């Protein structure tokens, strides 16, 4: 069973708009038409704060502590959350959440119909959040991120990793793993000045291009002691093997860079997030690539290679990402199939988290995403390391730069 079927299998006890019954009371009291909803909230700030900050969005340390204490210790925590996050008969909570979500992310909708449509999507999404949270084995929090009003279809547009584009005969060489190297307990290439700030791919399936530039930026910086921010748009426009905003693969992109004659800087070939005519100017290319390597699906080997050689381009299953707020993400396999990779990212480091109360060790990868700094942990994702979670080890590659 995949994530979507599971989510859809949760019955809506009172589907919105089916008989109008649900709508009417909402329309009158909750949509803010007459300010009725606002007043009680303003008059009872204590109650409002409790729901918004402590129980729902996980926005303060109180919520985090409660979670750590209660993780895996029965249903008590989930029941509490169920009331607010996933309860079918608690539309009031979702509407309150939806309004604070709109405020927090500065969302506005062009008319009432759009508002209703978005609320319906949000409502469904909070059920997915509940399922992810209920089955989480790490410390991750899932919630109303800036993507919480996007449908599954819209969210998929922001991915773009296409494993089926893998060529029949790969030009990649197997990576040489420094087996004798004693990898440190933790390592972070961001502390070595070889990682550019988090970028934003927008509503274009160009993750593959960002994963590629991130890797090449690191390779170049380590080898030449010069960190450049490189152009994804050049790859979107000029890499004919891949498919621009419809997706691609770093493996193809490394070769495309070689064939094109290099990559221009972000500033010289800026990102527009749309498929455009290629206007690559070879004399502006600042870096080149002259080969690529494929890492084994072995996270111990990956860590060794990373500490010696630099950040690693990966493909991953994005099921846990739309609602990821922070923490070490460790979803169950059936919620994040490791064989179905759909998003490209960049591993820049790793570490081990120790839980506060039970002192459980949670090894993680530090993964750079391309959805802006206002997603995840300042644009980064921490995913469990050691058991192939979400397929993190399935398509690990790197360019070789001359
Ligand atoms: C909020 O959104 C409005 C309308 O989209 C925009 O004009 C405004 O600049 C935004 N404000 C912030 C702080 O992002
Ligand atoms: C390519 O870049 C060079 C250096 O900036 C410039 O002189 C040349 O006109 C550019 N060529 C085109 C076709 O834009
Ligand atoms: C890539 O560049 C390096 C360094 O210049 C060189 O040693 C190597 O032979 C090159 N490989 C290919 C395939 O051109």
The CATH architecture term of the largest domain is Alpha-Beta Complex
CATH class of the largest domain: Alpha Beta
Number of helices: 13
What Rg is obtained from the alpha carbons, in whole angstroms? 22 Å
Keywords: Disulfide bond, Glycoprotein, Hydrolase, Protease, Signal, Thiol protease, Zymogen
Domain Peptidase C1A papain C-terminal: 183-400
Domain Cathepsin propeptide inhibitor: 98-155
Family: Belongs to the peptidase C1 family.
Which features does this protein show?
Cathepsin B, Chain A; Peptidase_C1A_papain-like; 12% strand; six-stranded mixed beta sheet; 402 residues; binds 2-acetamido-2-deoxy-beta-D-glucopyranose; alpha+beta; three-stranded mixed beta sheet; 2 domains
Structural features, described:
Keywords: Disulfide bond, Glycoprotein, Hydrolase, Protease, Signal, Thiol protease, Zymogen. Belongs to the peptidase C1 family. This protein is of the alpha+beta class and 402 residues long. The chain has two domains: 1-66, no CATH class; 153-399, Cysteine proteinases (Cathepsin B, Chain A, Alpha-Beta Complex), CATH 3.90.70. The chain contains 13 helices and eleven strands. The strands form three sheets. Strands 3, 5, 7, 8, 9 and 10 form a six-stranded mixed sheet that branches. A three-stranded mixed sheet has the order 2-4-11. Helix 6 runs antiparallel to helix 8 (112-134) and helix 10 packs across helix 11 (232-238). The site of one 2-acetamido-2-deoxy-beta-D-glucopyranose has 3 residues, from loops.
């Amino acid at each position: 069973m995949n994530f979507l079927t599971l989510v859809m299998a949760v019955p809506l006890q009172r589907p919105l708009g089916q008989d109008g019954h649900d709508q009417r009371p909402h329309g009158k009291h909750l949509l803010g038409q007459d300010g009725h909803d606002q007043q009680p909230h303003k008059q009872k700030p204590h109650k409002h704060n409790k729901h918004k900050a402590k129980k729902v969005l996980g926005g303060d340390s109180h919520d985090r502590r409660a979670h750590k204490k209660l993780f895996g210790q029965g249903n008590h925590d989930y029941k509490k959350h169920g009331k607010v996050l996933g309860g079918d008969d608690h539309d009031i909570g979702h509407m309150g959440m939806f309004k604070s979500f709109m405020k927090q992310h500065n969302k506005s909708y062009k008319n009432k119909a759009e508002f209703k449509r978005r609320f319906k999507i949000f409502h469904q999404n909070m059920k997915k959040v509940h399922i992810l949270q209920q089955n989480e084995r790490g410390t991750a929090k899932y919630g109303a991120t800036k993507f919480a009003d996007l449908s599954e279809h819209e969210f998929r547009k922001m991915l773009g990793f296409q494993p089926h584009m893998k060529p029949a005969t790969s030009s990649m060489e197997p990576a040489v793993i420094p087996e004798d190297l004693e990898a440190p307990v933790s390592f972070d290439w961001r502390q070595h000045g070889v990682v550019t700030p988090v970028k934003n791919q927008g509503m274009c399936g160009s993750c593959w291009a960002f994963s590629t530039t991130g890797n090449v930026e690191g390779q170049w910086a380590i080898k030449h002691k010069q960190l450049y921010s490189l152009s994804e748009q050049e790859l979107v426009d000029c890499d004919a093997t891949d498919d621009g905003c419809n997706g691609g693969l770093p493996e193809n992109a490394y070769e495309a860079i070689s064939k094109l004659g290099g990559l221009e800087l972000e500033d010289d070939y800026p990102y527009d997030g749309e498929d455009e005519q290629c206007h690559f100017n070879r004399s502006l290319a600042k870096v080149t690539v002259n080969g690529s390597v494929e890492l084994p699906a072995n996270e111990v080997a990956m860590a060794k290679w990373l500490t010696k050689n630099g950040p690693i381009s990966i493909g991953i299953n994005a099921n846990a990402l739309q609602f990821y707020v922070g923490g070490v993400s460790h979803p169950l396999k059936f919620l994040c199939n490791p064989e179905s990779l759909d998003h490209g990212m960049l591993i820049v480091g790793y570490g081990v988290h120790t839980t506060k109360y039970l002192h459980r060790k949670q090894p993680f990868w530090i993964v750079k995403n391309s959805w802006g700094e206002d997603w995840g942990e300042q644009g980064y994702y921490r995913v469990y390391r050691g058991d192939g979670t979400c397929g993190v080890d399935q398509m690990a590659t790197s360019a070789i730069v001359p």
